[in-house]
Amino acid sequence: MKDAAAEMCKAMAAAHKPYRMAPTEELTKILGSPLHGGILAVTRPKPIRVFDPADAHVWAKEGRPLLVLDGVGNPHNLGAIARTMAFFGLERLLISDHPGQASPSEASLRVSEGGLEWVEVIRAQKFVAALKRLRDSHRIVGTALGSGKPVAEVLNRPGKPIALILGNEEDGLPTATLAACDDIVTLPGSGRVQSLNVAATAAILIHELAKQRR
């Protein structure tokens, strides 16, 4: 950590940016949490762009999958999902206008371990209408408990790039969102617990999507 901090200070000095050394106790007091790893940064939040259907056609030409969240309210889950996306190279996250949908925050940034710096977050206003426009360029795949098709059958099918939608853990995807999907997938389990945490589900499905690009 000391070597990394020293290199960071050199880079800051070269860019004529201010920095200050401080004891761990002071960093903890400033952040209000001991979970800072010895470094704090003051930055401007990345802007959240509004979804434009014209952009989706550009993304489709790149052939890359798109992850979509509708009602995932826990910022820690948002951060964990962004971390997984960055690890596997997914670059865009579309979030709905659902009142319970989390946006990037201090908590999600911390949990993402830098992942949110690599992921562009885009908000879709009038979400269901946006999904219908997105269908022109992507195959919309939703997730549900027990009522969907096998993952490999749907995600490995050739054709348009996939826009994969994950919803709230307790309630799942809203009925209107499910109706706007081309396919629904389900992760089969042992039945000993009802479901996985949404971040764990995302990790499995993102890994499956990433395999298509190899």
Structure description:
- The chain has 9 helices and 8 strands.
- The radius of gyration is 19 Å and the shape is globular.
- Strands 1-4-3-2-7-5-8-6 form an 8-stranded parallel sheet, with helices on both faces.
- It has 214 residues and is an alpha/beta fold.
- It folds into 2 domains: 1-31, no CATH class; 53-212, Alpha/beta knot, CATH 3.40.1280.10.
- It starts with a helix and ends with a helix.
Helix share of residues? 25-40%
Shape: globular
Q: For the largest beta sheet, what order do the strands appear in spatially?
A: 1-4-3-2-7-5-8-6
Q: What is the number of E strands?
A: 8
By DSSP (H or I, 4+ residues per run), the number of helices equals 9
Radius of gyration: 19 Å
Strand content: 15-25%
CATH class descriptor name of the largest domain: Alpha Beta
Which class do the helix and strand fractions yield?
Answer: alpha/beta
Protein name: rRNA methylase
GO molecular function, one term: RNA methyltransferase activity
Pfam family, one: SpoU_methylase
GO cellular component, one term: cytosol
